[in-house]
Design a protein that fits this description.
The complex is a heterodimer. By secondary structure, chain A is an alpha/beta fold. Chain A is built from two helices and eight strands; from the N terminus they run H-E-E-E-E-E-E-E-E-H. In chain A, a hairpin with a 4-residue loop joins strand 3 and strand 4. Chain B has one domain.
Chain lengths: 156, 264
């Protein structure tokens, strides 16, 4: 085979391989995401986080504003302590509510932030005071059953 | 009376010593190849020639199998997901199974049978026809001149081929899922993009294919270099290349996956 055609084919091959990798990175995967440089960290304590996992999204009004960096157990208060990395572009007031929510009926769990009316914003290292735990299906069912039973008692 | 049991134990011992010796030879062989690989970069033409034979000529089989694996995944995934009413997750299923597992493993298996066997046969025949000895007579190191360029060509082309396989497979899944069956195109891509992570999924797949490329070319070159210089020896070495590298790929895949698997 002639030298130039061989070079051409090998060049095409290498370019196609790198191109395929780029397609995988950009089109199939999410190359973007939040890097550690342009985020700030806030904390929140929950009674129960349900099935929340590290790297779960943090959404406000449905828009992803950050990711869960770490989940730990506070052995003094017996609460779950969630570390959240929030994009620097987004500021939240001090009285923000953080709640563990589920996307869809069986979807993944995420943290929803709802801003309050405070004029001061949460800074790096601050803790969200108002939190709402994940809904545990068993508790929900038992509450429903108790209230049904209570209804039955009053009717008698 | 004890003759026969002793003889069989002796056979086991002989075979174990033999296989350990071969493993040692193989390790020495790969070390020599790595040490003598300066020439394959100084005279890049040698490596480029081998890249053509191992990489470019494997393209057809890799691309076609990638497309078909992706299309079959599209059909099968849709069939299963339909039961749970989550057809829109088809993109996630196709992309994750291709990028994480099927892409690296299947393309490595195809690479072993397409390019690995050719390497073994070529080097084995070179040895049988005493071309390697002739090189040594001319003070040309056959490891640097023949083996190392082939090693680097296989090492470079394997991750590229695996990436192309995965990309083609995702395209095949798209063809079947979106174009043929009619899954919503937006949710196909967006769910895929939100579920597939660059570092966790794609980079791990690339690491896998690099390891497989190393293992397959190593086995193929060693079997060729070590083949008995007869027609029968070369054919046996070619068979061993395909069998051993397929088994090694599957075994390594299990080990790598269990390392990369982040538990719940």
């Amino acid at each position: 085979m002639e030298r130039s055609t061989l070079d051409l084919w090998v060049g095409l091959f290498v370019c196609a391989g790198i191109g395929a990798l780029l397609i995988l990175a950009l089109k199939v995967g999410n190359m973007s995401g939040f890097s550690a440089t342009d985020t700030y960290t806030i904390y929140a304590q929950f009674d129960n986080i349900g099935g929340l996992k590290p790297r779960a999204p943090i959404k406000s009004a449905g828009v992803v504003v950050g990711r869960v960096a770490d989940i730990a157990f506070d052995n003094n208060k017996f609460l779950a302590r969630v570390t959240m990395s929030i994009d620097k572009h987004y500021k939240f007031p001090k009285d923000t509510t953080a709640s563990v929510l589920t996307s869809g009926l069986l979807g993944e769990q995420y943290i929803g932030l709802i801003g309050g009316g405070d004029t001061a914003n949460l800074g790096p290292g601050d803790t969200v005071k108002l939190t709402q735990s994940a809904v545990v299906l068993e508790n929900l069912i038992s509450q429903f059953l108790y209230s049904k039973a209570a209804e039955g008692d009053t009717k008698k | 009376m004890l003759e026969r049991p002793i003889a069989s134990v002796r056979t086991i011992g002989h075979q174990s010593i033999d296989s350990i010796l071969r493993l040692g030879y193989a390790a020495r062989f790969i070390t020599l190849t790595l040490l003598h690989s300066g020439m394959s970069f100084r005279r890049l033409r040698l490596t480029i020639r081998e890249l053509y034979f191992t990489g470019v000529l494997s393209l057809i089989i890799i691309l076609v199998s990638g497309l078909f694996v992706g299309m079959v995944l599209g059909f099968q995934g849709f069939h299963t997901l339909q039961t749970y009413g989550s057809e829109s997750a088809l993109g996630v299923l196709v992309a994750l199974s291709l990028v994480r597992e099927l892409g690296p493993v299947v393309s490595a298996l195809l690479f072993a049978s397409r390019a690995g066997s050719a390497m073994t046969a070529e080097i084995g025949l070179m040895k049988a026809t005493e071309q390697l000895s002739a090189m040594e007579m001319m003070a040309v190191d056959p490891i640097a001149r023949v083996v190392a360029p082939r090693f680097w060509a296989g090492f470079i082309s394997m991750p590229l081929l695996a990436a192309m396989f995965s990309a083609m497979g995702v395209f095949g899944g798209y063809l079947v899922g979106v174009v043929l069956i009619g899954v919503d195109e937006g949710s196909f891509w967006s769910q895929m993009q939100s579920a597939v992570d660059f570092r966790e999924d794609i980079l791990n797949g690339v690491i896998k294919s690099i390891v497989f490329g190393f293992a397959v070319t190593w086995i193929a070159l060693f079997e060729g270099y070590d083949a008995p210089p007869t027609a029968e020896g070369v054919s046996g070495a070619t068979t061993r290349t395909v069998v051993t590298s397929s088994l090694v790929i599957l075994g390594l895949d299990f080990v790598l996956t269990s390392f990369m698997f982040r538990g719940v």
